[in-house]
Structures are given as structure tokens and as C-alpha cells.
């Protein structure tokens, strides 16, 4: 296969809110360019994981090369970059976008612009993208393309004069999309004669081919047999296979300037490749790496423990396998008096956490307990040392701490006007600072600065419930701010329970402490003595509940000489006790921890 | 039946031969005959001394018939016991104490006082599940139990077992045998037995040793057919050894005011009671050690005995 002239290449991404039809449009583009035959088509070709298909989200960046003969008689190579659509993968999204010159903005012609659309479109504009606006689902009776065009102009400020109206579902006007890509989006720029400079967009592990690296060639070319260097790590590899995804690997042996494709080499682990890294020729390196590289940073941490302690080794093996394909997820061993042996894991965000947990449970058939998610705190100690805290249990003695800073986010919430009041109250209750409030028709668009700490704790569930599911929410991390944060311990019969301790803002401590004590009161079984349950900051008790002592628990009548029945009951009680965790004199069933750690209020 | 027993076994002169009977007039008419056959202790299922409660409990007799059956029995049998059920719907501790006082006036030497419990699969369970039968919550149940203990003890019938009260010396000897984890043969339909196998007895070293548990066929017709075909109605046998035997002894023995001998528990189960759990239970006033080393559930411990036993056996 020969490399096309740069002017006939178009690299583009698709931006859409969940359910607005991104995957269906991608399927149609693949189909109408004949990239896959009817026989080979499945729905949502690009979402290869079960979880991606079910949830309608993209987790890994994927690419597909389409060959399109345009109305001008020329053949074009269209590289569709399917980017992860969630803020947890904001950095990955930014690199995918940086690999393209333009985006298709897909908006549902009846639903209009959502919070997530906004965040992504701004990111595309930050990457100097040209944008083709596409109004999808125009065949539906509820479609109001004119109103939505106006909304897009008002909210985003895009000119919608050339917007393409389609129905991805029925295939209406897919041709119009392809023509718009060719005519409205610019070709890539680059120097064919310069040394190789390529951006590492993503990488994954293929069971047959090993680590596959998705790259965008900025300058020069990438060939089979070439010795290349990862500029961040300095590691050198020999390129074994070079090709494009169509959407299966099609070996081309070389990728030219402006192209998007994949290669394999002697790379052992996905962890050896860093998204955003610059790849160059080992002998004739480029002078400057690409700007904008950032190492993967876990934002949210939680403990994952096997329900059955015997599954610990299986969990360890499963985590190793998942990490092969997802270097942004980190784990280290942790032991807890309440939950036994497990792992402290770091994630890019809450969705990432959910996905990993779900994959562990589903693909590896493990039953897991997840502790409440916590964020990464930065502590300045009196000694001048700065430390990051991933686990509340590791918090140093308060007298050694000078200041604690916590991560803040900028949240975008779009909601029908009716729910605005309670949403503002929710944000206010969670220490939010209002940054902006606008109206688009009857929809309110509000921006809040919020501590991430308050968001990981049931914020999203609360938002969904008070807006009956109508509010949409997106956020990005902004900065670390100092806060009056304290470690809240939960004591059961005066013994601290490590798995339940958390860092909270002093103003929230009483509310969270009371909620936890009330919950535990119903979860801890009655004992022969009364059990105080307390939430404490240092030595100060801020909430208290009591599990009353058992008053009556005795079989009134033993029937004749039938002891067998009694013994069998006793066996059941003994079996139950084996599954309990001992805290001082109190025995707490593991199910109680699982229930207590569930996030909803 | 008593004749058949006398043919096969040597009977102790003072053997306790108890019979359970319903307090109906038909049954009362047969008391003299039972006594003549050798029955020397009668246990009557009286259950309550007022008609509405008897009806609610699904009993066929009324209070007047029960009182007259008690009177008849008292004249005929040297020893008399009857059962009452309390914690009936709406029953207050005061009302129950008064009823119990009246019952003790009837001069039985033994009373079985059971708290109403809802058994799965009974009509009561269905009523309870439907919310049509309210039984006392644990607090009310505890108050009723306390009233039972206080009233009976004040009248000279202290509890020698969780639910059984007797004047000193009038304890039910066959029941004591079960509670003391002794040996017994179960013959009739649905009867359980605990036997020490011959080998173990002759060896002598295993004090009590393991037990052979037996269960006979439940359905009377099938039981009869089995007895006629094979000479016995035993349909299930099981070796009960080690921890299981120790558990059985604990479950039964701690129901008694006399408690258990920890050394016997060790001999049966091959293990000792967990010293930490034992110390905690003592500290919480649930068990107490008697002079001579026996261990028993305290009065407070009796209220929650199932939990105490589960702790000790864990």
C-alpha cells in the first residue's frame, strides 16, 4: 500500500454526549465506505469490551482507517479516532484530540447540548480543531434541528450554517458527513523529510501480537525494522510490525507523515509506554519532544478486598492482568483488620474505578468489597517534607502536620430549570463555590468549584436523584487548595475500625459521622453487652449511637431428647461467627462492612 | 406398653413413669387406669387458665375442664405437673403473674412454663407473617420471663431449667437425663435416643464417650409397619463424637440451674472452653462458676442463653 499525499489525509475525532449516537455514526461511516463487509459488521464495532458496549462509553482510544472516494473524484484516507468520552480519561482524550485536526460534534436534534458535550468541544477547540456540526436523529418526531442549531450557536458559539442533518440509525445523509469531513476539515501538516516525530496516542495488549502502540506521525516516517526511541523513558525498540487499523490490523510496513496507525516491537508491557510520549528515530532523533506530556496520575483511591480471603491470590493475578492493558491503574498490597488482605488501588476517576471493579468481578469472577473512595491529599509536614496521602489509615499524627491540601474540580452541570434550586443547595452543602450561572432556553447551566472529596462521596447519585436523572454533570480537576481537613475515625466499642476512617472537612464531619454511626447501628448485630458506636476526631466524639444489648434470646422448649435440632442450629451460629471479624470484644459480620461502605446516604 | 417394658428390662422400684395427657374430660376418665398400669407422674398440657387464650392457642379444652382434670389427677397421681404457655398476644407481666399465682395454688409440684414461640410451618407462623398475631418484642418478652422467675421462685417453685420449675426433689427425672446428656432410648414415633456404644462403656476410659444418636420414624402408621417388619422403628443413626458431643452437652447442660462440669465437656469434646471467651462472659455476668468448679449460666445469662452457648461453643 502506498502512502497518500498529505493533502488527502483527514484525521478526526467524534464528540458526543452519551446516547447521542457516536458509536452508531462510527458504524455507519465504516459501513458506507465499505471498510467492513455486511457480514463482518457488528453493532458498535469500535467498542470492543463488553462494558463499553453495555454502557455506551469508550474506554480505550481506537482508530479506524476509512478510504473514501469524494465527489471531487479524489480518494481520501479518513482516520477516525474514537476517543474515550469521559472526564476520567481527560488526558487520554486530550492526546487523542491532539492527534487530529478536526472533530465531528454530534448533537441529538431533540436533546441538544449536554454538559459532557461542552467539556469535550472546548477541549477540541483548545486543540485548534475545525469542527463539523452534525445534528443526529433528525428523523425522530421530537427533533427540533432549528432550535438545536440556535442553541449550539448560543452556547458554544459555533457557526451552524454548514451543519449536517442526519440519522445515523437509518443511514440518512451519511454521505453528507463524509463530504463535510473532506471539505470542512484541514489536512495534517508536517515535514516528510524531518526526523521521525510521532505521538504515542494509546497502547494496549493483544494476546497474539503483544503490546500494540497507536501513533500519529507528526514528521518523517515510521518503518518496519526501524530502531525507535521513546523520548520520555529513553528506551529503544526495534519496530516489528507497522500497519493501520481497518479496523483489524492491516500491515503496511510504513506510516508516513500525517498518518495514524499502529506498530509492535519488543515492548514487554503496556506500562512501558506512556500516553503522550514522543517517539523518534534512535539514530536520527528529533530535536524537541512534543509539548503537553503528563504522566498518568491516579486521582481517586480505594481499597479492594476479596469477600472470601481465599481469593486473594486470584485477585492479585487478575490485577496484574488488567494492568497489562491499563497502566493508569495502580495497586499495592494493603491489609485491614476489618477486611483482611487486599489492595489499595489508584484510578483516574470514579468511572475508571467502577470499570476496573466491574471487570475484576465480571471477567475474573471475583467477589469484591470496595472501601469508600478517597482522593489524594497533599500534606505539608512541620519538618518541611511534603507527602501525598492515598489512604486515610496512613495519616501522620496531626501534630506533625502543618497544612493539608485537597484537590478541587470545576463542575459543569446542565439541568432543567425546575431542579436548579435543589442542585444549587447540594453544591452549596458540599462546600461548592458558584462560578457561573447561565440559561439556555429553559435549561440552566451552572459552574461550580467543588472539592473532589465531596464529589466522590455520593454526589453523583444525589444529583441524579434530585434531578430525576435530568441533570448532566461533567468536571475537570483544577487545583489543590488548603482546607480544614480532619481524620474522622469510627470506633466500635471504643476500638477504631480502620476500613471506616476517612478524611473529611471539619464542617462536614458531623453529618458524615452521624450518617455512618446510624448506618452501623442497624448493621452490627446485638451482643450480650451494649456497644457504643462513635465517630471521633482525635479524642473528640462528634456522633454516637448505641447497639443495645441483647435482652432475650433463648429457646423456650427443648423437645424431648431431640438435641440434634439444637446442635444443628448451634452449628449454623458457629459457622456465622467464623465469617465475622473481631474488633476487640465485638464481632462484626463482613456483610455489615460491605453495607456500611456503600456510598449512598 | 408398660408390661412389655417390665418384661424386657428390670425396673427400679422408684422409677419415674411419666405420662403426658390432655386435660379433656375423656382423658380424665382414663387416669385411674393409667395409674393402675404403673404411671406415677402425670404431665398435663393445660397451656392457659382462661378460655379466650385457650381458643387463640387452638386448644380444644376450656379452662373449667382443665381445672377439673387437674383436680382429678391430683387425687390419683403421686406427682403432677402441668404446662402453661405465656407471652400470649397482649399479655402483660402483671396479668401473667396473677395467672401463674392461680396455677401454683392448684398444688402441682412441677410446672413447665414455656414462652410462646412461633414455629415455622405452623398456622401461627402464617398468622404472624400476615401481621395478625402479635407476639411480644424482646423487651416485653424479657419482662415476662423475669415475672415468671420471680413469681414461681417466691412460691417455692424455682426454675431448675430455663422453662421448668419444681419444688426441691420434684424435678422431672427423665427430662434431667436429657439435660444432663445421659443415656436414653427413644422408642415411639419420632423419638430420639442417645446411647453409649457397648465398647466404649466397657473400656471405661472415655467418661461418657461418644454417643450413638437414634431417631425413629415420625409417622405413626409407618412407624408401626417398621416395628412389625423389623422389630424397631429406628430410621436414622449417627455417631456423635468430639466437638459435636461437647456441643450437645453444652446446649443441654447450660439450661440447668446446676450447670455443667467443664471437665466432662473436655472429656467429651477433646477441647477446653476458650478461656478468653469464658472470661468475657464472666465479666459480662453471663456465666458463673460454682464452688466445686461447675459452670452455669447466671440468671441474666438465661435470658440470652442461645447467644451465650454460641459464644462458648465457638
TrEMBL record, chain A:
UniProt subcellular location: Cell membrane
Please indicate if the UniProt record lists Methyltransferase as a keyword: no
Residues that bind GTP, according to the entry? 19-24, 136-139
MF GO annotations: GTP binding; GTPase activity; guanosine tetraphosphate binding; ribosome binding; translation elongation factor activity
Bilayer topology term: Peripheral membrane protein
Q: Which PROSITE patterns match?
A: G_TR_1, G_TR_2
Classification via SUPFAM superfamilies? EF-G C-terminal domain-like (SSF54980), P-loop containing nucleoside triphosphate hydrolases (SSF52540)
Q: Does the keyword Magnesium apply?
A: no
Protein family (similarity comment) = Belongs to the GTP-binding elongation factor family. LepA subfamily. Belongs to the TRAFAC class translation factor GTPase superfamily. Classic translation factor GTPase family. LepA subfamily.
Q: Name one GO biological process term.
A: positive regulation of translation
Q: Where is the Tr-type G domain?
A: 7-189
| Documented EC number(s) | 3.6.5.n1
Q: Which organism is it from?
A: Methylobrevis pamukkalensis
Q: Which Gene3D superfamilies match?
A: 3.30.70.240, Elongation factor 4, C-terminal domain, Elongation Factor G (Translational Gtpase), domain 3, P-loop containing nucleotide triphosphate hydrolases, Translation factors
> InterPro entries attached here?
EF-4 (IPR006297), EFG_III/V (IPR035647), EFG_V-like (IPR000640), EFTu-like_2 (IPR004161), G_TR_CS (IPR031157), LepA_C_sf (IPR038363), LepA_CTD (IPR013842), LepA_IV (IPR035654)
- What Gene Ontology terms describe where this protein resides (cellular component)? plasma membrane
Protein name per its UniProtKB record: Elongation factor 4
TrEMBL record, chain B:
Return the InterPro entries for the record: Coproporphyrinogen-III_oxidase, Elp3/MiaA/NifB-like_rSAM, HemN_C, rSAM, rSAM_sf
Outline the extent of the Radical SAM core domain: 1-155
Record GO cellular component, one term: cytoplasm
Keywords attached to this Swiss-Prot or TrEMBL record, sorted alphabetically, are: Oxidoreductase
Q: Which residues cross the membrane?
A: none
Pfam families (UniProt xref): HemN_C, Radical_SAM
- What is a biological process (GO) this protein takes part in? porphyrin-containing compound biosynthetic process
Note the Gene3D superfamilies from the entry: 3.30.750.200
| PROSITE patterns hit by this protein | RADICAL_SAM (PS51918)
Which GO molecular-function terms appear in the entry?
4 iron, 4 sulfur cluster binding; coproporphyrinogen dehydrogenase activity
**EC numbers:** 1.3.98.3
Please report the name of this protein according to its UniProt entry: Oxygen-independent coproporphyrinogen-III oxidase 1
Q: What organism is the protein native to?
A: Methylobrevis pamukkalensis
Amino acid at each position: 500500500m502506498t502512502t497518500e499525499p498529505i493533502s488527502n489525509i483527514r484525521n478526526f475525532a467524534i464528540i458526543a454526549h452519551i446516547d447521542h449516537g457516536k458509536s452508531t455514526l462510527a458504524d455507519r461511516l465504516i459501513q458506507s465506505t465499505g471498510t467492513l463487509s455486511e457480514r463482518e459488521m457488528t453493532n458498535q464495532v469500535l467498542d470492543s469490551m463488553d462494558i463499553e458496549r453495555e454502557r455506551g462509553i469508550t474506554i480505550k482510544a481506537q482508530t479506524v482507517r476509512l478510504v473514501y472516494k469524494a465527489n471531487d473524484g479524489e480518494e481520501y484516507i479518513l482516520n477516525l479516532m474514537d476517543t474515550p468520552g469521559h472526564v476520567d480519561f481527560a488526558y487520554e482524550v486530550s492526546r487523542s484530540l491532539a492527534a487530529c485536526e478536526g472533530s465531528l460534534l454530534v448533537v441529538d436534534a431533540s436533546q441538544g447540548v449536554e454538559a459532557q458535550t461542552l467539556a469535550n468541544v472546548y477541549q477540541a477547540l483548545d486543540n485548534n480543531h475545525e469542527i463539523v456540526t452534525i445534528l443526529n436523529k433528525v428523523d425522530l418526531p421530537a427533533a427540533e434541528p432549528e432550535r438545536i442549531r440556535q442553541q449550539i450557536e448560543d452556547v458554544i458559539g459555533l457557526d451552524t450554517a454548514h451543519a449536517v442533518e442526519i440519522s445515523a440509525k437509518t443511514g440518512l445523509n451519511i454521505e453528507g458527513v463524509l463530504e463535510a469531513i473532506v471539505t470542512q476539515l484541514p489536512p495534517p501538516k508536517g515535514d516528510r523529510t524531518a526526523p521521525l516525530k510521532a505521538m504515542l496516542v494509546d497502547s494496549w495488549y493483544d494476546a497474539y501480537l503483544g503490546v500494540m502502540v497507536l501513533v500519529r506521525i507528526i514528521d518523517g516516517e515510521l518503518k518496519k525494522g526501524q530502531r525507535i526511541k521513546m523520548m520520555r523513558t529513553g528506551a529503544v525498540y526495534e519496530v516489528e510490525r507497522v500497519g493501520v487499523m481497518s479496523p483489524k490490523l492491516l500491515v503496511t510496513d510504513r506510516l508516513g507523515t500525517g498518518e495514524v496507525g499502529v506498530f509492535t516491537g519488543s515492548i514487554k508491557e503496556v506500562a512501558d509506554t506512556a500516553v503522550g510520549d514522543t517517539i523518534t528515530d534512535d539514530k536520527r532523533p528529533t530535536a524537541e519532544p512534543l509539548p503537553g506530556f503528563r504522566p498518568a496520575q491516579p486521582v481517586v483511591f480505594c481499597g479492594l478486598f476479596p469477600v472470601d480471603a481465599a481469593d486473594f491470590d486470584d485477585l492479585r493475578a487478575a490485577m496484574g492482568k488488567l494492568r497489562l492493558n491499563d497502566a493508569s491503574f495502580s495497586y499495592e498490597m494493603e491489609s485491614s483488620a476489618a477486611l483482611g488482605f487486599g489492595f489499595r488501588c489508584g484510578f483516574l476517576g470514579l468511572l475508571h474505578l467502577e470499570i476496573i471493579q466491574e471487570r475484576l468481578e465480571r471477567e475474573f469472577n471475583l467477589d469484591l468489597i470496595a472501601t469508600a473512595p478517597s482522593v489524594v491529599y497533599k500534606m505539608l509536614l512541620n519538618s518541611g517534607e511534603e507527602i501525598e496521602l492515598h489512604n486515610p489509615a496512613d495519616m501522620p499524627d496531626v501534630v506533625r502536620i502543618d497544612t493539608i491540601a485537597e484537590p478541587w474540580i470545576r463542575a459543569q452541570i446542565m439541568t432543567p430549570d425546575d431542579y436548579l434550586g435543589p442542585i444549587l443547595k447540594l453544591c452549596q452543602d458540599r462546600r461548592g463555590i458558584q462560578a457561573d450561572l447561565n440559561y439556555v432556553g429553559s435549561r440552566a447551566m451552572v459552574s461550580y468549584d467543588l472539592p473532589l472529596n465531596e464529589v466522590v462521596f455520593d454526589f453523583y447519585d444525589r444529583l441524579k436523584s434530585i434531578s430525576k436523572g435530568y441533570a448532566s454533570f461533567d468536571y475537570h480537576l483544577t487545583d489543590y487548595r488548603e482546607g480544614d481537613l480532619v481524620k474522622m475515625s469510627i470506633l466500635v466499642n471504643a476500638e477504631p475500625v480502620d476500613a471506616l476512617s476517612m478524611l473529611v472537612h471539619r464542617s462536614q464531619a458531623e453529618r458524615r459521622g452521624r450518617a455512618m454511626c446510624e448506618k452501623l447501628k442497624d448493621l452490627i448485630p446485638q451482643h450480650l453487652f451494649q456497644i457504643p458506636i462513635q465517630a471521633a476526631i482525635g479524642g473528640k466524639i462528634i456522633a454516637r449511637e448505641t447497639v443495645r444489648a441483647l435482652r432475650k434470646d433463648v429457646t423456650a422448649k427443648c423437645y424431648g431428647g431431640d438435641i440434634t435440632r439444637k446442635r444443628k442450629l448451634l452449628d449454623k451460629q458457629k459457622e456465622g461467627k467464623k465469617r465475622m471479624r473481631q474488633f476487640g470484644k465485638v464481632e462484626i459480620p463482613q456483610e455489615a462492612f460491605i453495607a456500611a461502605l456503600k456510598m449512598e446516604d | 406398653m408398660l408390661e412389655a417394658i417390665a418384661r424386657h428390662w428390670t425396673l427400679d422400684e422408684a422409677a419415674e413413669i411419666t405420662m403426658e395427657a390432655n386435660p379433656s374430660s375423656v382423658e380424665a376418665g382414663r387416669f385411674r387406669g393409667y395409674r393402675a398400669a404403673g404411671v406415677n407422674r402425670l404431665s398435663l398440657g393445660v397451656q392457659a387458665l382462661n378460655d379466650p387464650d385457650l381458643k387463640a392457642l387452638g386448644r380444644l379444652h376450656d379452662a373449667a375442664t382443665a381445672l377439673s382434670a387437674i383436680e382429678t389427677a391430683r387425687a390419683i397421681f403421686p406427682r403432677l405437673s402441668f404446662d402453661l404457655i405465656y407471652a400470649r398476644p397482649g399479655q402483660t407481666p402483671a396479668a401473667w403473674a396473677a395467672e401463674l399465682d392461680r396455677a401454683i395454688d392448684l398444688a402441682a409440684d412441677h410446672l413447665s412454663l414455656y414462652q410462646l414461640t412461633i414455629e415455622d410451618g405452623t398456622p401461627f407462623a402464617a398468622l404472624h407473617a400476615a401481621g395478625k398475631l402479635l407476639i411480644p418484642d424482646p423487651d416485653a418478652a424479657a419482662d415476662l420471663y423475669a415475672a415468671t422467675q420471680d413469681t414461681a421462685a417466691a412460691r417455692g417453685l424455682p426454675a431448675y431449667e430455663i422453662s421448668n420449675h419444681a419444688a426441691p426433689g420434684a424435678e422431672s427425672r427423665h427430662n434431667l437425663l436429657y439435660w444432663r446428656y445421659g443415656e436414653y432410648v427413644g422408642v415411639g414415633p419420632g423419638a430420639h435416643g442417645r446411647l453409649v456404644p457397648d465398647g466404649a462403656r466397657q473400656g471405661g476410659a472415655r467418661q461418657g464417650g461418644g454417643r450413638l444418636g437414634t431417631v425413629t420414624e415420625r409417622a405413626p402408621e409407618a412407624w408401626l409397619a417398621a416395628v412389625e417388619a423389623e422389630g424397631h422403628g429406628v430410621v436414622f443413626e449417627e455417631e456423635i463424637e468430639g466437638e459435636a458431643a461437647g456441643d450437645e452437652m453444652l446446649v443441654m447442660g447450660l439450661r440447668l440451674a446446676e450447670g455443667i462440669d467443664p471437665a466432662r465437656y473436655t472429656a467429651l469434646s477433646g477441647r477446653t472452653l476458650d478461656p478468653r471467651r469464658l472470661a468475657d462472659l464472666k465479666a459480662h455476668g453471663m456465666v458463673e462458676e460454682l464452688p466445686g468448679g461447675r459452670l452455669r449460666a447466671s440468671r441474666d445469662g438465661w435470658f440470652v442463653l442461645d447467644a451465650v452457648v454460641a459464644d462458648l461453643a465457638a
